[in-house]
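Renewal narrative, Specific Aim 1. Our central claim is that a sequence can be written position by position from structural information alone. The example that follows is taken directly from our test logs and has not been curated for this report. It begins with the structure tokens describing the chain, in the order in which they were read.
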């Protein structure tokens, strides 16, 4: 299915319409951004790597009962997806303290949390994607109370599936971001992507705080070897038997 016209271009992907009004074509770019696009660059091959990882993980989740927008991967850096209305929320699940959680609370990086923490951020670059309380989320009518319950349940279930999957890959899933969309019938589907761009992933074979990083933090923190880290994640994901 070939692309028709550009519908939307974001930081990491371009969405095209297709000859089926219910299906979109997602093109994964090599562009990399951090700190709300204040830092920009390119990671060679990132589009193909992330598309391959995301496609594989969507299949794993589908096999475990999670409904997603994924349909197929027709080319190395393109994904066919069901058209959905994106819920304007970033759903973040944290297993280990890192990133903004440490910056905002003083919790030391690397501390294992007593239970998975689910957070919501408003998808709004102009406002800096602020952290929302659940009452604010409902006040802004970004989701209904029932949808909020679904989002939390789905996020925790996805976390369990992915934590177990990555563990089999020799990778620790530190935290990750999810996005969801609604079909015309109001069914909630997991959307966007799951990749080293949207997850913090640590190599279990490494104890050094820098060498263990296998995700976009290598780009954010100028740690180098970004493409190699992404390639290593892809290799481990594709080799996993889970």
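The sequence written for that structure reads:
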């Amino acid at each position: 299915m070939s692309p028709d016209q550009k519908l939307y271009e974001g930081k990491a992907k371009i969405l095209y319409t297709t000859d089926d009004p219910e299906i979109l074509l997602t093109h994964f770019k090599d562009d990399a951004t951090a700190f709300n696009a204040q830092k920009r660059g390119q990671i060679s091959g990132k589009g193909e790597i992330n598309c391959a990882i995301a496609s594989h993980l969507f299949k794993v989740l589908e096999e475990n009962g999670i409904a997603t927008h994924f349909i197929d991967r027709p080319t190395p850096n393109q994904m066919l997806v069901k058209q959905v209305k994106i819920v304007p929320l970033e759903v973040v699940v944290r297993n280990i303290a890192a990133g903004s959680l440490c910056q905002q609370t003083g919790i030391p990086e690397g501390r294992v949390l007593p239970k998975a923490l689910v957070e919501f951020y408003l998808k709004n670059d102009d406002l800096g994607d602020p952290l929302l309380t659940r009452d604010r989320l409902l006040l802004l009518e970004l989701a209904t109370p029932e949808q909020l319950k679904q989002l939390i349940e789905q996020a925790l279930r996805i976390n369990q599936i992915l934590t177990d999957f990555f563990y089999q890959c020799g990778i620790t899933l530190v935290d990750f971001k999810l996005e969801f969309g609604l079909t015309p019938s109001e069914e909630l589907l997991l959307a966007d992507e799951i990749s080293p761009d949207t997850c913090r992933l640590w190599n279990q074979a490494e104890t050094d705080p820098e060498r263990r990083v296998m995700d976009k933090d290598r780009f954010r923190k100028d740690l180098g070897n970004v493409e190699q880290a992404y390639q290593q994640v892809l290799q481990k994901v594709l080799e996993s038997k889970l």
